[in-house]
């Protein structure tokens, strides 16, 4: 397996709390990898190390390494701004800006210096199409993003993330605040995106992991217990603790 | 009354309802005292001053004779001061708030500064007058001028603006900042494009309310030496000046009845200006909130 993201012996501390323990994990490109495990096991923490969002939490410390396409993302040669342009993120709560739909999607490209109106128009349309939102909003791009439903807002956030042309998309329980139909739409969307992007998603919903991902990693108390092809992990886990978890014995 | 509710329960509920009703009356009374006081004040001022609401009030300079006296120089002085104070205090106040909320490390030095700012917001305004007299009038030799008055009032409103701008910035949800950072924004991009637009309604409200406080403020300007008998409009920053509350204060302290009515008319103008400012605060807030 050729891994785009290689996590090696990663430990993360929030002050005294050790939230990740010796995590070693490879994530292949252009596919979906799901992180599952009980609440508090470190899924979000690991996800946030991939775009260095943990850097902003005072008192965090890491050791070990993370390489993306062979580059250590914590080395001095990498600026976080560039890293985050390549590694997009979608959050649990839809978090559009209090701006128009257009300005939400154009936010990222503008940050990175694109001013040309025609170019921005193109990016906005392409991103909204990729996020399967274009048909619903194409006639009112100037309206506030806050007028959209929760599911639409989340797809807008996906479009906003795609607009800076990332290679990797991180999704932290991106559907857990949504109703079943919106959830389904986003799951379908991830299936379309996975041929173009490397998607890493945290989910507390095992059925969702089974439905959408190619690989699944199971975590417990900051440790990676098992990572395997999704089908194999659910049908035939090699670790008894994985089996306990997926059969609903705890968590 | 059936089996599972007793007469005792019933009595207790009735008692509670009575207390509830009485408290409600009490709270209503508290509200009415404020409103009635305000109404009485406004009515007595209008009755007193209405006949002096006439063109001369706005067009004439102060005069020894009430029939000819106006407050042109005071109105213009207040407006000049407002127009200079607003941008200066906005820039410095919001700048300080951004620094404290977004950039400063949350350590003891910051907490100390914070405590001082909150305290300054409560310092009596006369103290600012003394400060202004020492710094601007004397030390920088700006004399008893419009610019001295403006800078003194800017100092007076700054702590209030800083604190309210900080509150507005603090109220911007963290996930909105995260969204910006996650797209590769740096700190200033996030502050200027994601945080400030969200915080702007709150910031502007704070600024305008601080301005309306300053417009009615008298003590520090008495200290600085704003004059009451100004028969020209300030044409440079170093000209002497007057403002509305000082003019009103002067009229009230004269023995003649006519000047008291004139003062009432002046108060009406001042109140109208305050209302206008508060109204524009609401308009601005609504305009910025359209997308929120
Ligand atoms: N900002 C933080 N500061 C301190 N501890 C944290 C912080 N965020 C998470 N943790 C701790 O790290 C552990 C993992 O949290 P998290 O990654 O959010 O778990 P998950 O996403 O799997 O529910 C938990 O014990 C949590 O309490
Ligand atoms: Mg989580």
Automatic annotation (TrEMBL), chain A:
Stretch forming the signal peptide: none
SMART domains: AAA (SM00382)
Keyword hit for Translocase: yes
Molecular function via GO: ATP binding; ATP hydrolysis activity; phosphate transmembrane transporter activity
Main location: membrane
GO cellular component terms, semicolon-separated: plasma membrane
Biological process terms in GO annotation: phosphate ion transmembrane transport
Domain of life per record: Bacteria
Keywords per UniProt: ATP-binding, Cell membrane, Membrane, Nucleotide-binding, Phosphate transport, Translocase, Transport
Cellular location(s): Cell inner membrane
Membrane topology field: Peripheral membrane protein
Transport listed as a keyword: yes
Entries under Pfam families matching the protein: ABC_tran
Domain ABC transporter residue range list: 5-246
Annotated SUPFAM superfamilies: P-loop containing nucleoside triphosphate hydrolases
Biological role stated in the UniProt entry: Part of the ABC transporter complex PstSACB involved in phosphate import. Responsible for energy coupling to the transport system.
The protein's name in its UniProt record: Phosphate ABC transporter ATP-binding protein
